[in-house]
Design goal:
Elements (H helix, E strand, L loop, with lengths): L7 E8 L12 H14 L3 E8 L2 E8 L5 H18 L14 E5 L4 H9 L1 H4 L5 H11 L6 H4 L4
Antiparallel strand pairs: 1-3, 1-4, 2-3
Helix pairs in contact: 1-2
InterPro entries: Transposase_17, Transposase_17_sf
Pfam family, one: Y1_Tnp
Protein name: IS200/IS605 family transposase
C-alpha cells in the first residue's frame, strides 16, 4: 500500500506546577494562540484548547510520526518560556512534571470537544483532582494516588 491513512487523536491534560492558579483570564487566549502555533509548527492539528487557571486541556490530531512525549515537552517548554519572557506572573512560571494523554476515537471527538469547551461549567462541580482521577479510572489506567499530585 503506497499511502498511509490514520486518525490519531489525543486528549492531553497538564497542570501548572503545584496546581497554582497562574493562568489569568487576561492572557489565557494569547497563551492558547501561542500553543496553537507550537502544535501547528510541529505539523500536528490542535482541534481545541481550553482550561482553568491551574491546568489546560488539548485535543490534538497527530500524524503517525509524532512522538507524543516530545510534542508535549515542546508545548510545555516553549509556552512556559513565553510566559516568563512576557513576565505574565510574579516569579517563575512552570508546568508540573508529566501529563495525562488519552486516546479518542473518531466517534468520541465531539464529546471531548464539548468537554474541553465547557471547562468552567464542569469545574463548578468537580475539582481538577477529581476530574483527573475520574479520567484515569475511565481509561482503566493503573496509578498510585500518592504520586499523582506531588509538588514536582
Amino acid at each position: 500500500m503506497a499511502n498511509t491513512y490514520t486518525q490519531l487523536y489525543f486528549h492531553i491534560v497538564f497542570a501548572v506546577k503545584g496546581r497554582k492558579n497562574h493562568i489569568s483570564k487576561k492572557w489565557k487566549d494569547e497563551l492558547y494562540k501561542y500553543i496553537t502555533g507550537i502544535v501547528t509548527n510541529k505539523n500536528q492539528k490542535l482541534m481545541i484548547i481550553n482550561g482553568m487557571p491551574d491546568h489546560i486541556h488539548l485535543l490534538i490530531g497527530t500524524k503517525p510520526n509524532c512522538t507524543l512525549s516530545d510534542l508535549v515537552r515542546d508545548i510545555k517548554a516553549n509556552s512556559s518560556k513565553w510566559i516568563n519572557q512576557k513576565q505574565l506572573i510574579k516569579g517563575k512560571f512552570e508546568w508540573q512534571t508529566g501529563f495525562g494523554a488519552f486516546t479518542v476515537s473518531q466517534s468520541g471527538v465531539n464529546h471531548v470537544v464539548d468537554y474541553i469547551k465547557n471547562q468552567e461549567k464542569h469545574h463548578r462541580k468537580k475539582s481538577f483532582r477529581e476530574e483527573y482521577i475520574d479520567a484515569l479510572n475511565a481509561y482503566e489506567i493503573d496509578f498510585n494516588s500518592e504520586y499523582i499530585f506531588t509538588d514536582d
